[in-house]
Amino acid sequence: MKKLNLFLPVSLAFLLVACQESEQETEQQEAEQQETEEASVSEGNTQTEQTEEKEENDLISVVEAKNLQNPPSTERELFNQPSGISSDTIIDEREPELAEQVLEEMRSLPVLPEDATEEEMDAYYKYFYSLVAFDFPDPQTVIDQMRFQLSGTPEADPQYQFKENYNIEIILDASGSMAEMAGSSTRMEQAKSEINTFLSKVPEEANISLRVYGHEGTGDDADKAMSCGAIEEVYERGPYDEAAFNEALNRFDPAGWTPVAGALESAAESFSDLDGEENTNLIYLVSDGIETCNGDPVAAAESFADSHISPIINVIGFGADAETQEQLRQVADSADGLFTNVNNAEELAAEFDQTEEILLRWEEWKRDAKGEVVSESLDTRAAIVKFSLAYHDNSTRQVSSVRGMLRMMVEEGLITRDQQKYFQSKSDEIDDLINHTREKYEEEFEKMRDAGLAEMEQRIEELAPDEAE
Questions:
Q1: What are the strands, taking DSSP E only, across 15-83?
Q2: Which of 280, 378, 261, 420 is closest to 331 using CA atoms?
Q3: In the beta sheet, which residues pair with residue 285?
Q4: Given CA atoms 10, 11, 16, 18 in this order, what sign does their dihedral have?
Q5: What pLDDT shows up at residue 20?
Q6: Quick one: pLDDT band at residue 459, thresholds 50, 70, 90?
Q7: Beta strands in 305-458, from DSSP E residues, in sequence order
Q8: Residue 287 to residues 178, 290, 340, 408: CA-CA distances in angstroms?
Q9: Beta-carbon contacts of residue 1 (< 8 Å; ≥ 6 apart)
Q10: Whole-angstrom Cα distance, residue 262 to residue 114?
């Protein structure tokens, strides 16, 4: 009996210890499970945060990958602003095809969240603005225009003074991109028509020629060498003959690559016996594309301009993108010529019109036994008016395009009304910059107009915004 009594306490002790161990084990398991659940929740939150951050970065990275210029905040950035997709047409409900292009581009971006960050909003707006932006000329173009318009006057640089003979050559880009539509017809069709119209009006004493490049082969790599070598004077230098000139124009269509440098070198060779002392040699290079044949068109133009030929090399970009405009501008600058970018036949005709006026003065100069051309008869103010109109008209078109497209984007559900207000406020700041720039230079140009070209050039240099601004 004593043994039994002794055994019971011992058994109870073992049971008590076992229960305590079981409870501790259960508590430990529960704690471990809770830690696992908390870790899972924490990991889930982290993944959600990472997903949200990734979505944000996706929009930003997609826009940044397009390597777009920021919307302008300084004059220099405004001068360098590339135009969007519309050339000179307001984009809104009245132009459904252009409007749909913009909407389609914006739909291609990652969705802009309703609670988007400022960085996302700015990236989204950057892409939108690049599509609806218009071109605003650098005030330096006023100087270039005036220098050209002073041709034949006592104030003109020797390069621009009238000589006994006047030789005009059009160098026309016939590469594949000239087949692109510019309104109801292709760039090439418009260029051919306006070139023919211009040359049909030149004085009978002037000699003309037409050189084309890239009009053979295709844009394929296999045709590159052949196409880059396709540079031809299709209308040899001489008086204008309408039938022969039309036949020359019909001999080629847009085809291959873009040997701008090669075309300038070919022209220089053909002008080798036309000394600048006795000849006014005017070259018009009309191109919509950048050099694609490994040449250096800037060096070619500089070498041509520095030769005894002393040509005036004016360059017309036809619907050229920002990169092409920059290269073509450098070509013109290296030869002290005039660069202009046009987007349609009307603008191309306007560029040729100023040359037609100069040719009429040359004809009068010859008829009057080389008498002085009176500078007061020149409408040098036209360059200033052209500058002002470009800023006014394009500012109006850009404002209308921004408002119209933002309204349509709200209707499409691409942006909220609050986001529309944010984007509109950023556009209003740019419009203020445009108007301030226009008013500033208009006022200065009016002051300088009667002071002479040299003083105007100096004043422009002082006014020009710092590149680092």
A1: none
A2: 261
A3: 171, 315
A4: positive
A5: 55
A6: low
A7: 312-318, 339-342
A8: 8, 8, 11, 35
A9: none
A10: 54
Query: For residue 89, which of 346, 330, 426 has the smallest C-alpha distance?
Result: 346
Strand partners, 185: 182
| 266, amino acid identity | S
Which residue in this structure is represented by tokens 């299709």? 234
| 82, two tokens | 């590339």
Which amino acid type is present at position 248? A
Torsion, Cα of 327, 146, 311, 287 (10° steps) = 30
**Sign of the CA dihedral running 261, 263, 267, 270:** positive
Chain centroid offset of residue 323 CA: 6
Q: What is the pTM of this model?
A: 0.69
Nearest Cα to Cα of residue 395 among 358, 346, 437: 437
Q: Name the 3-class secondary structure at 289.
A: coil
- pLDDT, tens digit, 9 for 90 and up, residues 438-453: 999 888 877 766 666 5
Closest CA to 131 of 406, 464, 450: 406
CA distance 360 to 322: 34
9 CB-near residues (< 8 Å, 6+ apart):
none
Per-residue pLDDT averaged across 102-106, rounded?
Answer: 96
Written as six digits, the tokens of 339 are: 């660069």
State the sign of the Cα–Cα–Cα–Cα dihedral 244, 316, 266, 189.
negative
- Specify the residue for token string 């031809």: 232
Other CB atoms within 10 Å distance of the CB of residue 330? 16
Amino acid in the structure at residue 246: N
CA–CA distance from 469 to each of 72, 105, 110, 413, 460 (Å)? Answer: 11, 31, 33, 38, 16
What is the C-alpha to C-alpha distance for residues 450 and 153, in angstroms, rounded to an integer?
15
